[in-house]
Specification:
single chain; 3 domains; three-stranded antiparallel β-sheet; 22% strand; 182 residues; alpha+beta; 10 strands
Amino acid sequence: MEYIEIKDNIIIAHFCAQELPIGSQYREVYDSFNGSVGDNINLFDWNNQGEKKSDSELITQGLVEDHRGTYYDKATKESFELTEIGVISLDTWTNIEPDSKDRFQTWDETQNIWVIDESAKQKAQIERQLFGLKQQLSDGDYKVIKAFELNTTLEMLYPGEPLIRQTLRDEINVLEINAVKE
């Protein structure tokens, strides 16, 4: 004979014995019982030999949540398909799809939406522009950009951004020094 021990509607043990112990916390189960320790006993139909209820019954009775669908990792944006009913950790996953065209999206926990990381986007833009300027300086004859032309160009690219202009000037000065040494 198999039986389970129940506390607060949760299966806390599954045993085999010759006799059912005395007490309301014990229930005999059939050999085909597929419950596990930790399961809520309401997941099972006790009028049908303890068979697990269908997904639709469990959802209708509010015993489990239906979160089936596509989810996205908030950190990596990787997707996966949840095909079983039950709980999913919404701390690390969301069912809101990120925009695949914008690599600068990050998850905002406060607003519960994907937002553009403007800082990362601007940094990438600066790096692209800096790369272009570095290419101009390192082409064959190591063209030297005059300070006036450089300042004018940087002012046009970054009006009202003195820190960015100074960072780019410093990078270009290092390149000029290295070009002269070679």
